[in-house]
Amino acid sequence: MAAHHAQWKGHLKIGELSCAVGLYTAASTSERISFHMINGTTGNRLKREFVDSETEEPVEREQQVKGFETGNGDYIMIDPEEVAGVIPDSDKMLEAEAFIPCGKIDDVYFDKPYYLVPVDDADHDAFTSIRDALSRTSATAIARTVLFRRMRAVVIRAHGKGIIATTLNFDYEVRSSKEAFEDVAKIKVEAEMLDLAKHIINTKKGEFDPAKFDDRYEDALAALVKAKAEGKTLPKPKPIKVSKPNDLLKALRESAGLDKASAEKPKAANANPGKKATAAKASRTRAKPAVRKAS
């Protein structure tokens, strides 16, 4: 990670064992295709400008401050230095407060993943001890620290040769699942539909391989940009077939390969009826016992 800049540096501590670590972004959007706002007439790039809502005059960057609305258009102005002043800068310690089994955290609380890496060679022994202890006990550590000027809860777990720290959403930030699903209708699923769905799931079980999942949106954008740059016809997306409610059972049967199999059986049975009749007649002839005449 030496080629990358650590977004945060502090200490990871479990009990009396601690080491200096750097926090690096595990997921980045820098490779995505991005667009700029352009003046459609001149072709020049646009620049963003903040304007006073009352005077309609541009406001320079040094005059821009954050404010909290108290109501009726009144604001308490907060300077960034004031925000930094109330957050303890010395609080750069990821100290484990509790340990829970891996997989026991509802992933709806997961925010962003980061890599934790030892800062100096002297920190490798302590770092490895913490990593191996987490791995062998299948435990996840919960810690809190100040990240990016905010107090954040972080879940820490072993991952290969290193450690992953994932920031967590606070409880007030996560919508209630009960509220989100309250309009979902209660429907009793037919036994055949459920059995077919379970059959499809069982036959398609596999391992998660992120390399197999392509970003079709990015691929479509890349094809669009390439086509326009070369003056070619714009690519047309293939229509997606959506099952209708009254076709769900049929769709499940087709997914399980049952409709195809049942359609092929009659076809095979009816093929060459003349040949089939001849074969049947020959079979009856062979099966017919010989009759002796009485002497």
From TrEMBL:
SUPFAM superfamilies: SPOC domain-like (SSF100939)
Biological function: With LigD forms a non-homologous end joining (NHEJ) DNA repair enzyme, which repairs dsDNA breaks with reduced fidelity. Binds linear dsDNA with 5'- and 3'- overhangs but not closed circular dsDNA nor ssDNA. Recruits and stimulates the ligase activity of LigD.
One Pfam family it belongs to: Ku
Chain intervals with Low complexity compositional bias: 268-282
GO biological process: one example: double-strand break repair via nonhomologous end joining
Basic residues composition-biased segments: 283-295
HAMAP family cross-referenced by the UniProt entry: Prokaryotic_Ku
Similarity annotation: Belongs to the prokaryotic Ku family.
Region (Disordered): 254-295
Every Ku domain range: 56-185
Biased composition (Basic and acidic residues): 254-267
GO molecular function, one term: double-stranded DNA binding
Keywords of the record: DNA damage, DNA recombination, DNA repair, DNA-binding
Name of the protein this chain belongs to: Non-homologous end joining protein Ku
Binding partners and assembly: Homodimer. Interacts with LigD.
Organism: Rhizobium lusitanum
